[in-house]
Specification:
With 501 residues, this protein is an all-beta fold. The protein has one helix and 42 strands. The strands form nine sheets. Strands 14, 15, 16, 17, 18 and 31 form a six-stranded antiparallel beta sheet that branches. The two termini are 24 Å apart. 45% of the residues are buried.
Length: 501
């Protein structure tokens, strides 16, 4: 008997992933130098990545335009576009908006101002707006609860000083309000998020001689400071991302450069910015963006171990697994895919190729990858309150861009997998790979059912669970990957197995 995977999902609840997952590594190149590159996963399974197209004009001057490519879930091209203006333009950190389109943020060389650009899912330009003040946006434009956008950057206050800058727009990029936060020692921001109370958490930096610490600023919904803290460690610290946790606190990922205990840091904060715990992973020497899964685990991407690395930890920062991919690439952004896998982008040292890696839920890409060996260090970081000046300022204007089609090349390695998910309990499944017979011991379930599903989601076998060891005749199954799903009427567990003869 065969039934669709949708029927399986209905029967076994939404606790598990009820479908196969695509995996690939794709290397993309064009006839130009590739600058800063970032990516995002869309809700329809496609992937959008942006990059700087760097060429030389006939007069020998550099020209920088926005490149944007959309690919399907297997890495194949849907479209590629170039967006150019009268200056040097960048459009980084693509994100899907609530209306199903794409928002980009980057600097324009007209004073390195914040440039917001909205693109539809076919690559057509919808609008582009330039801030009158505020520069160097280094993180995604965060879409707020009201459909507008929040952008973090910097505000120049003198020839040598900068404040952290928070820039707010409506849903069409028109300026609402902006605030600079700082003093003579502060500098740019690397991220902003909207918090559950509709306020904002943004980062900044504090320069003290050769040491640079990062700070966090928590504001209310109209930009008034609620608290600001500095986090002190010798040498240079660069924060990349933050997330609000289920208990109202925050998780921050940052990269420590130089000194003792360099490398990736994960830091958990209470809601008032005080430190709950902090852990350092020195083998990931260029730790960058993190995400929190639905069950509270943490995934983070960085560079190290001779390649770029994806690591998963539990909610306390204890390592669950790590994977490293390619020996020539430096990792950048990380995102959740619609099938619960992960999407990453990386560039090579010669800046002529970028790589998209799409994995399954366990970090497998099916291509060039190995597990690394990462240690955990428990460092000490000092926190202190910071008093900042506040400067209200800002504005926006229309910015003209011209779109054109763009030719890129791709070299793909792709496959599919069935997620190996133990969502409730561990159990025994043997032998694996199997030949004629598969056995399982699942004493936790006194009653229930099991289903054997192929990678297309068809039910090939099913039956009732019994207590103790149960033997299943799989001699009719062809060589390949399958998944067995156990269901007790309330909870479910999945396990991948292989038929190999």
């Amino acid at each position: 008997m065969k039934r669709s995977i949708l029927s399986v999902c209905f029967l076994i609840s939404v606790v598990t992933n009820c479908f196969s997952q695509t995996m690939f590594q794709g290397r993309y190149s064009g006839g130009f130098e590739i600058g800063s590159s970032t990516s995002t996963a869309m809700s329809d399974g496609s992937i959008v990545f942006s990059y700087e197209i760097i060429t030389t004009t006939s007069g020998g001057q550099p020209d920088v335009n926005i490149g944007l490519t959309r690919i399907d879930s297997m890495g194949n091209f849907i479209w590629s576009k170039e967006y150019s203006g009268n200056a040097l333009e960048s459009g980084n950190f693509p994100k899907e908006t609530s209306d199903g389109n794409i928002i980009l943020v980057g600097p324009s060389s007209l004073g390195d101002r914040i440039l917001l650009t909205k693109i539809d899912m076919s690559g057509n330009l919808m609008w582009s707006k330039l801030a009158t003040v505020g520069s160097y946006p280094n993180s995604p434009a965060f879409q707020t609860h009201d459909g507008g956008f929040a952008v973090a950057g910097s505000l120049q206050t003198s020839s040598s000083t900068f404040d952290t800058y928070l820039y707010r727009t409506d849903s069409t990029g028109n300026f609402l309000w902006g605030f600079g936060y700082g003093d003579s020692t502060t500098a740019h921001s690397k991220f902003v998020i909207e918090t559950s109370d509709h306020g904002f958490l943004l980062s900044g930096s504090i320069q003290i001689f050769t040491q640079e610490d990062f700070m966090l600023i928590k504001t209310d919904s109209v930009g008034t400071i609620e608290w600001a803290k500095q986090y002190e460690r010798p040498q240079l610290d660069i924060p990349y991302s933050a997330h609000q946790t289920g208990d109202g606190g925050y998780l921050v990922s940052f990269n420590g450069i130089g000194g003792t205990n360099a490398g990736l840091y994960l830091m958990k904060l209470f809601s008032d910015g005080t430190i709950d715990w902090v852990k350092n992973y020195p083998e990931i020497f260029a730790g960058k963006y993190s995400k929190i899964t639905k069950n509270g685990d943490i995934v983070v991407v960085g560079s190290g171990l001779g390649s770029f690395v994806l690591m998963k930890t539990d909610s306390m920062g204890n390592i669950i697994w790590d994977k490293k991919y390619s020996n020539r690439m430096s990792a950048a952004t990380l995102d959740f895919a619609s099938d619960s896998g992960y999407v990453m982008i990386a560039t090579n040292p010669t800046f002529d190729t970028l790589m998209i890696v799409k994995t399954d839920v366990n970090g497998n890409s099916g291509c060039e990858e190995v597990s690394g060996s990462i240690s955990v260090v428990y460092p000490t970081i000092t926190e202190m309150d910071v008093v900042l000046n506040i400067t209200p300022t800002g504005g926006s204007s229309i910015y003209n861009l011209v779109e054109s089609n763009l030719q890129m090349n791709v070299d793909l390695c792709n496959t599919t997998s069935v997620p190996d998910v133990n969502s409730i309990r561990e159990f025994e499944l043997f032998p694996n790979p199997a030949n004629e017979s598969l056995s399982f011991n699942f004493n936790s379930y006194q009653t229930g059912s099991f289903y054997v599903v192929n990678i297309l989601g068809d039910i090939l076998m099913n039956g009732n669970l019994i207590s103790g060891t149960q033997n299943l005749d799989v001699s009719a199954l062809k060589n390949g990957i399958y998944m067995i799903k156990f269901f007790d009427g309330e909870s479910s567990v999945n396990k991948k197995f292989i038929i190999e003869r």
